[in-house]
Design brief:
Structural class: mainly alpha
Distance between the termini: 52 Å
Strand content: under 5%
Number of helices: 5
Shape: elongated
Length: 149
């Protein structure tokens, strides 16, 4: 059975963790907004990240790498920051929207970093490209929602 290099396995596990972190962040954002289109968007993004996470986990296991579990410190801090903004901001929906845009941009960079690895099997590269394209499409959608505000 083919396995990932340790470096690739670590990067994929980091990406998996950030994907689950994003799911939690989107759920929290959906709970903190009243604007229905924005709430729906955040709920869709949470489900998308859930689906991404499971596909990534399956791919990681397929290549014999152990899947790490946990919640990163950075994601906890980011969600806490969104909570603080929700409590103290007069326009918390706009603040959360901007945080979501920042998160999507960071996700694109993280995917690109993993995709730059030459040791990726074709199935993994194709999965990551597909997920990256969905994130990019979502970023364009969220920017459109921001323009409506």
């Amino acid at each position: 059975m083919t396995t990932y290099t340790e470096k690739v396995g670590n990067k994929l596990n980091d990406l998996l963790q950030k994907t689950y972190d994003a799911e939690k962040g989107y759920k929290k954002a959906a709970d903190n907004v009243k604007n229905i289109p924005l709430k729906n968007y955040f709920e869709r993004k949470a489900q998308e990240r859930y689906d991404f996470g499971h596909a990534l986990k399956k791919e990681i296991k397929e290549f014999g790498t152990e899947v790490e579990k946990g919640d990163s410190f950075t994601s906890k801090a980011h969600r806490s920051w969104m909570d603080v903004k929700a409590l103290f901001s007069t326009d918390n929906e706009e603040a959360m929207l901007k945080e979501a845009i920042n998160g999507e941009k960071a996700a694109l960079e993280e995917y690109q970093d993993v995709l730059s690895e030459t040791a990726l099997p074709p199935t993994t590269a194709n999965l990551l490209i597909s997920q990256k394209n969905h994130i990019n499409s979502g970023l364009n959608t969220i920017k459109g929602i921001e323009d409506l505000k």
